[in-house]
Amino acid sequence: MRNVKIYWSSMTTRSASSNRNASRSRKLALPYTTVDVVIFTVLDDALQVLLVQRRGDGDEPFPGRWALPGGFVDVEADSSLEDCARRKLEDKTGVASPYLEQLGSWGSSTRDPRGWSATHVYFTLIPGQDVSLVKGANAADVAWFKVDEVLHPRGLAFDHDDILQSAVERLRGKVEYTSLPAFLLPEPFTLPQLQRMYEVVLGRPVDKSGFRTRMLAGRFLEEVGYADGESNRPAKGYRLIDRLSLVVFPRTFSPRGAD
């Protein structure tokens, strides 16, 4: 009986070991991994987002549809997800290193008809006036679109409608208590121009006197002579002391005329 027990234990051990080795050797299907960037600007007094039109040839999904700029991670060129996002941003706009914030990750077996995929999303704000857009070899076109017109009706490729909606909500929420809209302006800029950026993003007016006090008390601006103000009249010009980080204010903005 002792020999039988020893023999059975040995067989069980060999069987378990064999199963583990088989499990290790089995190749797992890897998901598609991409990085997308939501690039905001203000043009024509409206919040706009950069979109690329997907090519209509080949076997690529969503041919001819508009989408957020992005693409696959280059394991040789990108040392991190943020590096990939910055590379995509520079490829499309020529802007090297503005403020960049991670929005979140989206992944499922249904968002891409080619198979299981995950995308890591960043968002940024840039001055759009002097940007030269580049569509790249894998896009049919690239253009700025008003955010409200993109979201209603929805029609972007993949799940980019959901991603854009989340980015807009994050942006408007953070604008209430941070210096984020300053990244939308070319330097130097005036305080009224900065206030207008806040109002465009928030979609409502902001009290002028309270705004000026908050901006100057935040100590994130420095005077740099004069800039063209309203009616091309010179006014005090400002620029950001640090273009890579935010200032957080102690309370949110009040609408114009509110207490």
Question: What does this protein structure show overall?
Answer:
By secondary structure, this protein is of the alpha+beta class. It has two domains: 32-173, Nucleoside Triphosphate Pyrophosphohydrolase (Alpha-Beta Complex), CATH 3.90.79; 176-240, Arc Repressor Mutant, subunit A (Orthogonal Bundle), CATH 1.10.10. The protein is 31% helix and 26% strand. The protein has six helices and nine strands. The strands form two sheets. Strands 1, 2, 3, 4, 5, 6 and 7 form a seven-stranded mixed sheet that branches. Strands 8-9 form a two-stranded antiparallel sheet. β1 (32-43) and β2 form a beta hairpin. The termini are far apart. It comes from Paraburkholderia megapolitana. This is ADP-ribose pyrophosphatase YjhB, NUDIX family.
